[in-house]
Amino acid sequence: MCTFPDNFRVRGYGSFASVDELCTSNMAPRSVRIPSRLPILLVSGGVLLPGSSMRIPVHAPRNMQLVKNHVMKRNSLSSIIIGVAATTSKDPQTEDLAALHGIGTAAVVAQVTGTNWPKPAYTLLVTGLCRFRLDDFVQEKPYPIAHVTQLDKLPGDLTDVNDDELAALLDTFKEKASLLVDMLDITVPVVAKLKKMLDSLPSQHLPDVFASIVKATYKEKLQVLDAVGLRERFEKTLPLLIRQIEGLRLLQNSKEQGNKKSKKIPDVRIVVKPPGEGGRRPLRIVGDQDDDGEVDEITELENKIKQANLPAQALKVATRELKRLKKMPAAMPDHAVIRNYLELMAELPWSKSSPYQLDITHAREDLDADHYGLDKLKQRVMEYLAVRQLKNNLRGPILCFVGPPGVGKTSVGRSIAHILGREFHRISLGGVVDSSDIRGHRRTYIGSMPGRVVQGLRTVGTNNPLFLLDEVDKLGRSMQGDPASALLEVLDPEQNAHFTDHYLNVPFDLSQVIFIATANTTATIPPALLDRMEVISVPGYTQEEKHNIATRHLVPKQLKEHGLTGEELQFSEEGLKSIIGRYTREAGVRTLERRLGAVCRAVAVKVAEGLPKPKQHAVENKESKEEDKTDDVHAVDEDIKVPHVDHPPNLPIVIDNHAVKDILGVSQNYIC
Ligand SMILES: Nc1ncnc2c1ncn2[C@@H]1O[C@H](COP(=O)(O)OP(=O)(O)OP(=O)(O)O)[C@@H](O)[C@H]1O
């Protein structure tokens, strides 16, 4: 199985230089034999005809499953044939299989483009091979697979056709087709190719190819698809061709006369648009507006960027990218990439900060309220905060709390953010081996995304949060660059006002961000990084300290988390000691907190079991009401509410030595 990066483009069928090339390629239908079972891709609002290509954005859950399970799991796309069937259901999300059109088009998957970040979005480029009839479904979920019957078994070239009527129809069709091509701008490569194809393409393929490039309604295209017989197919397509020619004539006349209408059209050069995107506008005029929905989304993005208050340099880049996006068809793979980029630009907190808030007199109280002990750490934090208050915008040292797991390093960081009224975000650095994890990938790189710092800023939505760089001692190193040196750039007050993430490619001012690091040991912190930080050791706790932390912080916290109160559950002195001494073996208090949680859960069950049963529904039938009364003395009477309690526990439930053993089992420490 192959894995795909976050942004990718996989080509499978030949090597097409462009959509246009594909759209006029002559790879279909010839002597194709398709499998009798095909996975079915549902397309709403568009019809794929044999010999033409279509870009299909994948949104609906079933289509997404098909792409993930059938297409992406292959190493190569070259042999992937799927069925493309139009659904008459207006909402593709409903994916009603009954609404599928009975005739579909077998197609090869020529290209998959898309992105996995921030959410999966794929586009398939498919080329139609031949018609098939949908017989029945072998499976409907996660994506439909159907038994199909191949319909197109086209005869050889029609040059020596015996049917006079068909021969005449063919001549007229060819004449009109070449007339249409002559009216198009030959300097457009795809038109030149179409002209060439007109002579070389076997005549029987002409209706499908032309039906897919002329302007036609969804219904008309379905009629062409339904035309299994050759003559019928010519008959259905010829009027479309003639109508297109008439339309172009009108357009040209209006241009010549220089009337008002034509002035609105900046360039009457007519290009052939790939017959995709619902096949609604195969021929379009350059300068024509695209789908309303798409325009709306771009306008929305533009407004978002305006409101984001970008600095000059960022605004310049965003405006340039926005212009590119407007010119680009939505089906182009780069469209999603630019959009993601612009969305990030619009969402970054360029000028949004949390208001200044620091009350040093209450800071100590807040720290004490959240944590027991940790005097040295709290003292240093107070000094840090005091200097911050005296000299705002401190380019101070980066504090690094070093100590064993579970001693409160992260939670002290969270408290500091709270005291300062800043947003808190934790960046876990354990196992980071690639510098682009910190600094992002360049946008030219497939699967590119911003680094964790920029992602963090987007998440918190302010430009002055507190970032906790967790586990700096576990930073790795690899061929992809040294993440520690990237981190140096982030932390260096001289440089971080102009921090440039590779993906963002414009500087973002990190000088207002507070960084605090945590580590279990200093031994493995890269020396250059260690040099920038002020290490504060947080030693493990003694049994007594753990006892105090438990009674003051952990027990009340766990009671609250489990919906219990002190009147329902109490820990006896010896019970608590037993948990600390026999059921935990750690310097911190994380396991202790887990064990207390386990006890709370067990007690919560007992308390819930003893609660009054929920009131039964009033009995509608009077007779049955009478029966109920005789059967059960506790039966519900509207007037007398007697709680139905089986064995209400004696509250509070006190957890002593024995209760601890009952709930937590035999201690591992005993076994050792
Ligand atoms: N002194 C303390 N007072 C109150 N609660 C504490 C204290 N020390 C730790 N805790 C609690 O213990 C739990 C674990 O703490 P925390 O996650 O901050 O540990 P840590 O040192 O960051 O661990 P790690 O190194 O594994 O990230 C938290 O719920 C925290 O509130």
Mean pLDDT: 77
Strand order of the largest sheet: 2-4-5-6-7
Tell me the CATH architecture of the largest domain.
3-Layer(aba) Sandwich
Strand content: 15-25%
Pfam families: AAA (PF00004), Lon_lid (PF22667), LON_substr_bdg (PF02190)
Organism: Branchiostoma lanceolatum
GO molecular function: ATP binding; ATP hydrolysis activity; ATP-dependent peptidase activity; serine-type endopeptidase activity
GO biological process, one term: protein catabolic process
Q: Can you offer a commentary on this structure?
A:
- Helix content is 42%, strand content 16%.
- It is α/β, with parallel strands linked by helices and 672 residues long.
- The protein folds into five domains: 7-150, LON domain-like (Archaeosine Trna-guanine Transglycosylase, Chain: A, domain 4, Roll); 158-285, no CATH class; 292-347, no CATH class; 360-537, P-loop containing nucleotide triphosphate hydrolases (Rossmann fold), CATH 3.40.50; 543-610 and 646-671, Helicase, Ruva Protein, domain 3, CATH 1.10.8.
- The strands form five sheets. The chain has a five-stranded mixed β-barrel.
- Strand 5 (103-115) and strand 6 (121-139) form a beta hairpin.
- The longest helix has 27 residues, at 230-256.
- It binds adenosine-5'-triphosphate.
- Adenosine-5'-triphosphate is lined by residues 371-374, 405-411, 518, 520, 549, 553, 588-590, 593.
- GO terms for molecular function: ATP binding; ATP hydrolysis activity; ATP-dependent peptidase activity; serine-type endopeptidase activity.
- One of its GO terms (biological process) is proteolysis.
- This is LONP2 protein.
- Residues 617-633 have a biased composition (Basic and acidic residues).
